[in-house]
Design goal:
The structure is a homodimer of 340-residue chains.
Chain A: H1 15-22, H2 26-34, H3 41-54, H4 60-67, E1 72-77, H5 84-96, E2 102-107, H6 112-123, E3 129-133, H7 139-146, E4 152-157, E5 165-169, H8 171-184, E6 190-195, H9 201-216, E7 223-227, H10 233-246, E8 252-255, H11 258-270, E9 280-282, E10 299-301, H12 304-316, E11 324-326, E12 330-332
Parallel strand pairs in A: 1-2, 1-3, 3-4, 4-5, 5-11, 6-7, 6-8, 8-9
Antiparallel strand pairs in A: 10-12
Chain A binds a DNA duplex (16 and 16 nucleotides) through α2 and α4.
DNA sequence: CTGAAAGCGCTAACAT
DNA sequence: ATGTTAGCGCTTTCAG
């Protein structure tokens, strides 16, 4: 019985019921309820009254089938627990709220197989568009996206080969730019702290770009530290303690996210380190919630809301485009790095 | 053209196409693709191959209309930006992942009118169930929920009059219990710091319960401080500074959420206050991300994941129940309060 | 094990 | 300004 609707025995109200109640045809009711075509004011009022009094709720399934229109936009992200994704959704929502379109969210839990399933399920509802986080997908998922017949936008990342349109930043370049900033400020004994998960492709790319940037400046990464599990103050604190005990002469710590950096910052302050002189810190992802820490962590704003807005605009324009929109992350100096 | 599907000119594949390709009837294809009824192994293989090679994606809209079944569960929450709601979604997801059901998320942005619209839109897709955060709704929304004909569960809160089933905690009692803990630990000059928004009904209830608990112990709230906007370290820090400058002899600060409490904690530590002796702090909502702060904030776990799981179980059982499930929040002592 | 017919509730297109 | 007709793509039901 699972998933049975409506509850057996309680038939749903149809246009016909409203039409009878109002003494007009189904078609007229349909027009009134959708504000289509000319209907006399008198009839309008009668229909609305009939619908209201019966508690009629239209059946969008039937409407969608008949009209071949669905006002849903599928959005596939890895998770809602990582704050970056709700922020992308905020941007999407800002734009779609101005339209008839509604986002429908699905999560892949960082699994490519699962992502494929979610995309398949979403497309089976024939949405008006699809927004998918990241560029890494199974072949089948890419094929579905390519054949969707509606606007598809991949978001967050531009380091790779998008199926269709894409909006994001280059995480590789973001890492590289951070390396340049750090080296320019005189740091030389640099550690990287990040996730051991291979599924965080964007963090991987930042790390690669970071190492590239360092090596271009003739600096080698002095040490790395990885964690399994979720980012957070405890994680950042633990990693920081570990890497500094192993390599005490580090003068800079670059974290995969500000959440971990915040934990590291608190640890370093407790240890009495002189930040940013003795040791500097930087993260990624500028989280508003962290304003109010004892120091402002140097970071790079990944422009998540802008990315969401931009992707939603492509969908709203019903543009079957394959344009790539590269946003440039903003370096926020904070006060955990020395001046250049 | 907005919302038009599929893209004009690219007709969607139908069962008929697959049937022709496989040389069987539409009905047989339908059976194979849904694993229904007996189909010979040979036919199955042929059909799967045909579907795969064509890249066929079933049309759930047509399927839902014909079968009167929809495997979607509507979930209406105020926002995704406040971490408590994604955590409820996590619990819902854990349970629904074991079934055919899929959550579809809608946000009300803390607006009752908007919530009504979202509920209406969701019900118009004839979902298999509906989960709505909170007990405060417009009359129209309550009427729709009552007449939905599918399981409806209100979550998070039990202080009020649910339409049907409800799972949550009593925020009033949570506030009251916290007051008792604080008074039992000898604090007497107590301040409350929270949101000025009337839309956060649950925080309002906690505050009311808190004041009730204090007055039962013969203690009056010494001061209050409210903010507009979002919770975060900066907000908590700012409120804390303000209330302590105005009422320097406070010996306890109770915050509406751990996020604000964390900002307050950092401020108090910087000021050199002796926590928990000179001043104690407590919040609400135990966020894992905060593990790793210099001290563990006393708080109450609002059992958000359990709430989500429990609500999803009612939906998954297709139970048109009106049972109320009260979960009891757990007091977590941390080390920002004295021992009793 | 497979197929044919009927229709889900609504809307596009064409009347009037 | 309103009504009529014919499906949308699928599943249910009933026949074989």
């Amino acid at each position: 019985m699972r998933g049975r609707n409506p509850f057996d025995g309680k038939p749903q109200l149809t246009l016909r019921d409203v039409a009878e109640q109002a003494g007009v045809s189904e078609m007229t009711v349909s027009r009134v309820l959708r504000n289509r075509g000319d209907v006399s004011e008198r009839t309008r009022a009668r229909v609305f009254e009939a619908a209201r009094s019966l508690g009629y709720v239209p059946n969008k399934i039937a409407g969608a089938l008949a009209s071949n229109r669905v006002n849903l936009v599928g959005v596939v992200i890895p998770s809602l627990s990582n704050m970056v994704f709700p922020e992308v959704l905020t941007g999407i929502g800002q734009v779609l709220d101005e339209t008839e379109l509604q986002p429908v969210i699905g999560t892949s839990q960082y699994g490519l197989e699962r992502e494929e399933t979610v995309i398949y399920e979403m497309l089976s509802w024939r949405p008006a568009g699809l927004i998918v986080a990241g560029l890494e997908h199974t072949d089948a998922a890419r094929a579905m996206m390519a054949a969707a017949g509606v606007p598809v936008v991949e978001v967050m990342d531009l380091d790779g080969d998008p199926v269709a349109a894409a909006v994001g930043i280059s995480h590789f370049e973001a890492g590289r730019a951070m390396a340049q900033e750090i080296v320019a400020r005189g740091y030389r004994r640099i550690g990287y702290l990040g996730s051991s998960s291979m599924s965080d492709h964007r963090a991987q790319k930042r790390q690669a770009g970071f190492e590239k940037g360092l090596s271009e400046a003739g600096v080698a990464l002095a040490d790395t530290c990885f964690y399994a599990g979720v980012s957070g103050f405890g994680t950042g604190r633990g990693m920081t303690k570990e890497i500094l005990e192993r390599t005490p002469d580090l003068d800079f710590l670059y974290y995969n996210t500000d959440m971990n950096a915040a934990g590291g910052l608190l640890y370093c302050l407790e240890q009495g380190f002189d930040i940013p002189n003795q040791i500097g810190l930087a993260g990624f992802n500028s989280f508003e919630v962290l304003d109010g820490l004892p120091m402002r962590i140097a970071t790079m704003d990944s422009r998540r809301t802008d990315i969401g807005r931009s992707a939603a605009e492509i969908i709203a324009a019903n543009a079957l485009s394959d344009e790539k929109i590269e946003l440039i992350p903003e370096f926020l100096e904070g006060n955990t790095v020395r001046s250049p």
